[in-house]
Amino acid sequence: MAFLRTSGRCFLPWLLVLLFVPSMMAARIGLGIDTLQSRDFDVLQGKRVGLLTHPAGVNRFGRSTIDVLRQAPSVNLVALFSLEHGIYGDKAANEAVQDSKDPRTGLPVYSLYGKYRHPTPEMLDQIDVMVVDLQDLGVRSYTFASAMRYAMESCFEAGVEVVVLDRPNPLGGLKVDGPMLDEGLESYVGAFPVPYVHGLTIGELARMAKDVPGIMEVDDEVRRRGQLTIVPMTGWRRSMMWPDTGLEWVATSPAVPDLSAAMGYSMTGLGCQLGGFKHGFGTKYPFRLLQFSGRKPEEIEAALEARHIPGLDFEVVPFEVKGKPHRGVYVMVSDWQKLRPTEISFHLMVLAAAWNRNNPFAAASDADQLLFNKHVGSYAWWNELEQKGAQADVDRFVRQWAQQAKAFQQQSRRWWLYR
């Protein structure tokens, strides 16, 4: 099923639909952790197990993978590994996370988003196998897939097996969109050479990293020798959006508390990074609510409507922040099939160039330019914005990226686990 049209006025009915869907469908969707449990944790037996996870690492009934593994008689869970936002998702974005002891389980928690991004040899000496259970968003700049890749690199070098428990791509497995990552822009917000919306599950990304020379920063012999097991889902199909799975959404990070925000991340995340647009962070509509200083919501709505972006509608909605009334423009998905999720971001950049006295992209610092390019992934687009500002040709780039995305999707079939 496609995502339902959602606006400020019909948001509650949409949420009610999502709440009722799991009770009807959950029995036919199994996550990687459910598959592993049905196999009596066969790949973990007799081994010291480390687990890289976060609050959204749960089974199909919402039970934490930490608890599932701890309470399995055949599993020896000895360490936890945390990433951005921490093991319980209570840390802010970009906040360094320290090593700690988990108060619930007493297990050591090694941070991979603090002093280290890769697990160290000392951490890996404690385990024989690293289990990865992370809910991704299907978007290149979301850092959880990067954390998985970095963990794979260190584990392969240390001779530690990696087991990835697969989970759905919440945007489905058929939507591929946005710029490819240019060589030289690889980073923690761009760890895979894929379009911005890549259409793969986290397990399929792991297969890609293992299969393709140069993605992981290890030599080819280490890559080939590394032990990787993907535990697949059952009942998932590429055509499924998140509501089709029957699974309840668990916040993947503080800024992505619900499914609406998960979809919005792919649409407005890039367009609000530089230039002046805000996308609703701190409101009840994160990544879906647009504002621009000095511009009335009606002006923003009219400017976006005039650009005729396929698959989107816009509506001015009221909201409150700390009890004070505000208004913004809510981004509604009217037709998921026609939508190119990232397209709106590039229109926002051009509008930002038009509405600022000086082109904010031409005036950006070297640090802001580098961070922007690491997220977007395209040197050519930056050059277009810097030189042409409000006259940048969004349509030409969108057409070019669509062709590249289509070619990538065909190439990526060799890593598909689900047809």
Molecular structure report:
The structure is a single chain. By secondary structure, this protein is α/β, with parallel strands linked by helices. It has 2 domains: 31-166 and 201-238, 3-Layer(aba) Sandwich (Rossmann fold); 259-393, Aspartate Aminotransferase, domain 1 (Alpha-Beta Complex), CATH 3.90.1150.140. Helix content is 33%, strand content 14%. The protein is built from 14 helices and 11 strands. The chain has a 7-stranded mixed beta sheet. Strands 8-9-11-10 form a 4-stranded antiparallel beta sheet. The two termini are 17 Å apart.
Short overview:
The chain is α/β, with parallel strands linked by helices.
